[in-house]
Amino acid sequence: MAIDNVMPDQSVLADIRREIEAHEAARAAARRKVMRRAPLFIAVLAVSLYVLARLFNGFADPAEQWSSTPHVFLYVLGVILTLLIWLWTARPVRWKQQDLRDRLFPLIFRFIDDFRYVRGEQPASFDRLPAEMVADLRRPLFGDVISGAYRGFAFEIFELQAQGNGTDGQGFRGAGLAFEAEHPYAGTLLARRQMQAATGFLGKLFARRELTKIETGAKDLDEVYDFRTDNPAAANPSTVGQLASALKWLGETWPSGKPMIALKGGDAFLLLPIEKDYFELPANSAPIDYESHVRPMIADLVALLETAALIRKVGSPSA
């Protein structure tokens, strides 16, 4: 689908620009408020610390004026309180950034049916991910989560960051995408990054689930990915070949890391490593521009959903 076909029309574009202008005005006002309040509170704190330090001098050894152990603790406490004051007074600016997302995303993603956006919540689809896809990840943190329907299929996109806990010690940062498969797979079929020898927790997990290792016949993929299934009979050459083709295409088009794919019943999953936030807006100090920030975000989401539209055909006779 051409990107221009889903770009906002002129009336929506005017609404988007009004939202950005209102956000910029509110953010500037919040920043001015911070610049007024923070120095005042920090000055009061500095005077209070100075008075306490002078009092400590009355109990300190003459050779330790301003440098006794209580003084050192006082200085450390002063640094901590200064940081906390700055973070507290700067909260309105950070809230404005999230407020913009809450108002802007429904406007710019109007081409998504049943659109829903949350931030920081675990997506419903994460519990349906095959355990083997996330077995080596711990302490998952979620950013933006968007769900809805596109071209007739339901999907959920989420930003994920997690520490590594597997035999390779690798964590994950990037985007996860769960969507409806066009042709349900009778079991679980996954292509995930190759682990070091199948020992330890992951190896035991594979063994317990009786996942069978399969080969695609593509040497470059078999050396990088671990292909496994709990239903080898369903992993016919056509399905495995389509999965391999999808991975090759992703490897050529995705900017970083090794994308991973899983099929489980009527669900399909895609994990895409990426170093930046997928739905990234500029920092609080930078102005927001439609052409530089909003339009590329729409294009990125459409590209990801078009990728899902192709991958969901894996295993389908019409693929």
SSE diagram, text form:
Elements: H1 10-57, H2 69-89, H3 91-108, E1 113-119, H4 131-134, E2 137-150, E3 153-164, E4 172-193, H5 200-209, E5 212-213, H6 219-222, E6 225-229, H7 237-253, E7 260-273, H8 290-311
Antiparallel strand pairs: 1-2, 2-3, 3-4, 4-6, 4-7, 5-6
Return the structural class.
alpha+beta
Order of helical and strand elements: HHHEHEEEHEHEHEH
Share in β-strands: 15-25%
Distance between the ends: 17 Å
Polypeptide structure, described:
The protein is α+β, with helices and mostly antiparallel strands and 319 residues long. It folds into 2 domains: 92 residues; 203 residues, no CATH class. It is built from 8 helices and 7 strands, in the order H-H-H-E-H-E-E-E-H-E-H-E-H-E-H. Strands 1, 2, 3, 4, 5, 6 and 7 form a 7-stranded antiparallel sheet that branches. It is flat, with a radius of gyration of 26 Å. About 4% of the residues have low confidence.
Summary tags:
alpha+beta; 7-stranded antiparallel sheet; 7 strands; 2 domains; flat; about 325 residues; 8 helices
Describe the structure concisely.
The chain has helices at residues 10-57, 69-89, 91-108, 131-134, 200-209, 219-222, 237-253, 290-311, and strands at residues 113-119, 137-150, 153-164, 172-193, 212-213, 225-229, 260-273.
